Amino acid sequence: MRQKDQVSRQLPDKEERLRLFGSVKPGKKTKPVKKEDMADLQNKQADFLFKLDEVGITNVKHPIQINSELTPNQQSSIGSFTFSSTVEQSSKGTNMSRFTEQLQDFHQRNLLSFDLVNLKLFTKELATRLKTPDAKLEIEAPWFFERKGPSSGLAGLNHADLKVSVSYTAPDQYEIRVGLTGSVTTLCPCSKEISEYSAHNQRGEVKLEIELVDNFDESTIDWKAFLLEAAESNASARLHPILKRPDEKIVTEQAYENPRFVEDMVRLVAADLYESDQVIAFFVRCQNHESIHLHDAIASITIDKRVEH
Ligand SMILES: Nc1nc2c(ncn2[C@@H]2O[C@H](COP(=O)(O)OP(=O)(O)OP(=O)(O)O)[C@@H](O)[C@H]2O)c(=O)[nH]1
């Protein structure tokens, strides 16, 4: 292809261009520039009417390490973080910069991972930094795991979304909730029952959130793999990144042999969580992206084993 001759026009210099688009010279400045001379509104003490449950920052994106029992055993993901603490009635506000200072400090010490022992340390250090009796951390991030075709053994990566929330209260109390949202195949039992042949099926999104026992040992149980198994093993079939024809035949027949309503899904997943002595309380929700409707079907269940049900 013949290139056109380059056209070159003399533009105003950069400073002039910025002025052209509205930039002005700095005005006269009278307020202090040294930190110790600046007003510190957030640390003002008075009666500010109410104590606040949660003050902090959210939607903070940062790299985070995930260690996993499933391949790949170590990976970097992008976490979406929320940090907060309570604020006393006598305090005007929090020192927001300390949340991201703590994040950077943890990152530099190479401690930023989904390991609960590290996240507990993070909240305790955050409370010390904020000079508050409590601190809370929430992280959501995609997690990738290898999945092989049931016949061909051909592997690819699937992913699920992880969620961790750690609440610390001084001197040494933690509440830890972990969660996972993953996708499965569900085949409609009603459709299978009433039709001469076939049955409609769809992709179901299963969301699990659990509160773990205080002495939960993450070195012996990978909670991510446990939650994924609870979701997938109770579905009509699992999802695969690569399926050859013999694989496709297996998952199609498997789905037909294991039909599930959304109600069946949440009850079966709930049964697995109920049986686990590592789980104190849980929430399970299933949302089926229906293939014979424009709308979705949903079901959910919440059980706290400390309460009679
Ligand atoms: N409390 C509060 N801070 C805000 C709000 N909006 C922005 N800020 C933040 O205020 C921060 C600066 O205040 P501080 O973190 O208290 O700064 P500082 O007092 O110099 O920090 P320390 O040295 O830790 O005491 C910036 O990070 C702003 O993002 C808000 O609604 N409330």
Automatic annotation (TrEMBL):
Lipid biosynthesis in keyword set: no
EC number of the protein: 3.5.4.16
Keywords: Hydrolase
Cited InterPro entries: GTP_cyclohydrolase_FolE2 (IPR022838), GTP_cyclohydrolase_FolE2/MptA (IPR003801)
Site residues (May be catalytically important), renumbered to this chain: C188
Catalytic activity: GTP + H2O = 7,8-dihydroneopterin 3'-triphosphate + formate + H(+)
Pathway named in the protein's UniProt entry: Cofactor biosynthesis; 7,8-dihydroneopterin triphosphate biosynthesis; 7,8-dihydroneopterin triphosphate from GTP: step 1/1
Transmembrane segments: none
Enzyme class (EC, first level): hydrolase
Family in the record: Belongs to the GTP cyclohydrolase IV family.
Task performed by this protein: Converts GTP to 7,8-dihydroneopterin triphosphate.
PANTHER family named in the record: GTP CYCLOHYDROLASE MPTA
Protein name: GTP cyclohydrolase FolE2
Gene name linked to the record: folE2
